[in-house]
Amino acid sequence: MYNGVILCAAMEYTEVVQNFVLDHTIGLSVAVSVGVVLWGIRRYVKGPRYYGKRRIDGKTVIITGGNTGIGKETAIDLAKRGAKVIIACRDITRGNNAVDDIKRLSGSTNVSVIQLDLASLKSVRKFTEEIHKTEKRLDILINNAGVMACPYMKTEDGLEMQFGVNHIGHFLLTNLLLDLIKKAAPSRIVNVSSLAHVFTGQLNFDDIAKREKYYNAEEAYTQSKLCNILFTNELASRLSGTGVTTYSLHPGAIDTELGRHWRSKQRLIREPIYFIYSLFTKTPYEGALTNIYCAVDESLDKETGKYYSDCAEKAPSKPALDEGAAKKLWELSEKLVGL
């Protein structure tokens, strides 16, 4: 009797479902189609996985901004591969917390943090002095830290913040560590740029350092990312024959702290846009894969001065290939940092 009631109820439920499907065929078909398309877009944005297993035991790695986002995920991966990992970040408390996480997640104890504020050339010099006291070589430098679309601010040295942090701070850091990097050859320098560089034209050398005449946060960001690629290219040229190779890259669209300044403006408009955007972004780990690829993959041992995205070589914008602009940027940067 009891089983019969259950069977009857199940049959009635099945009939209701069948009728609903028949009555809403078009709507359900559209919903399924939209779902499949959205899943496809999300899968495309995430990009391919990187499965390289190369070990880097005994090698020393420095990662700026290694306390959060893709920098932290990069640190975890390289620590798992046997590297000595030094993360460089502005907030030493957050840095120490990150070190604890990296050690726990990687199983490595060879992870440390040194304070570095890329908005201060004095801090950059102090950081490199500390590195020279403790390290005899540097195998991999990953210039990962950055700021995006912030309100108009200046660095400690009077430079526009995005140009100062994203390019100038890393320019000085790299140059002051070059002796250790050359000693470790074959060694690598990885500069994290962005696809955003395609949304700007030639560098505005007239006002790029301070932007006191006119400031647009998004334009300043895209130009600073163009600087990353031009710096990588010129660095490759100057380091030819030394065994040091350079790489610039776009990590992908990632939901990290980097977008905090962009979201803080016009919140009523930008927060909903950012929410939709975040549905199709990479995780920090997925965003770190091209970092890791450029840092360790065997296929890149002889490559230098190229641009990568989704663990593959890609063509940057035409202005990013301007050798004259790369040399001019280098000369300007030398003057600004006093080299």
Automatic annotation (TrEMBL):
Keywords: Membrane, Oxidoreductase, Transmembrane, Transmembrane helix
Highest taxon above the source species: Eukaryota
Parts of the chain that traverse the membrane: 26-45
Keyword Heme: no
Keyword tRNA-binding among record annotations: no
InterPro entries: NAD(P)-bd_dom_sf, SDR_fam
Single GO MF descriptor: all-trans-retinol dehydrogenase (NADP+) activity
EC assignment: 1.1.1.300
EC class name: oxidoreductase
Family: Belongs to the short-chain dehydrogenases/reductases (SDR) family.
Protein name: Retinol dehydrogenase 12
